[in-house]
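Students often ask why we bother encoding 3D structure as a string. The short answer is that it lets us treat folding as translation between two languages. Here is a chain of 284 residues written in the first language.
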Amino acid sequence: MAETKTTVTAGSAKATSHQAKKSSNVFALLAVPICIVIGVLFYLFVLGSPDNFQGGIVGAHPVEEGIGKWFATVYQGGAIVPILISVLLICITFVIERFLYISKAKGKFSGADLVRRVQFHLANKNVDAALAECDKQKGSVGNVMKAGLKKYKEMITNTELDTEQKILTIKNEIEETTALELPMMEKNLVFLSTIASVATLLGLFGTVLGMIKSFSAMSASGAPDSSKLALGISEALINTALGIGTSAIAIIMYNFFTTNIDSITYAIDESGFTLTQSFAANHK
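And here it is in the second language, the structure alphabet:
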């Protein structure tokens, strides 16, 4: 009987996991092309606005002052600039998405605090009060501990299994719930880790293109075209700056999120240890 219930829980857990992954993939599939479109439009119509150039001629010298000067300067970075802007928008989008999700996963109060409260209630053999604390926390640690506590409560009245089997059942329930929570916290971090490498390479590619233009201007017969030489160097530096800046944001935020996930994971592990040790001590 106990094995049948565990099987049903595992099946429903897999279904829930599948639904969550599907929903998250839809977000990723929509976010990436939307960011690319916005990046290209921003490059063409904001950075490339005639108001940013002297005489209203796109490609001429930038206006002498104001934000238009900087917009026109970035616009002259060449064809790689809209790609880098799109990558930056993708990075910011997934940073916001992961920040909101992980903030929710952390719950109303820390997982360590929840573990201490649950330990207190279990020491007094008040499982319902411990479950209420999990509902208050509303985070990943609370979800895992709540699932474990429900199985904990069920095992108290179970007369078919011995203590060791009951503890194993509780542990399995915690592992199944953890298998749902952790992948969702790590979801979409692959975009940030990829951007951290790709943005630098794209910036380097734009830099190389700019330097090619510069050396082409220098190789022309007669006196080098100083205007084309300066434009090529400017293009190279603009792409370098965008690539390095985007990569830095991705690396910093990736490390920030993984650190938070590690702290939540530690609290989840601690919660599982607490439940099994409590059951072994109080319900031999």
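Translate back mentally: The CA atoms of residues 175 and 279 lie 16 Å apart. Keep this in mind for the problem set.
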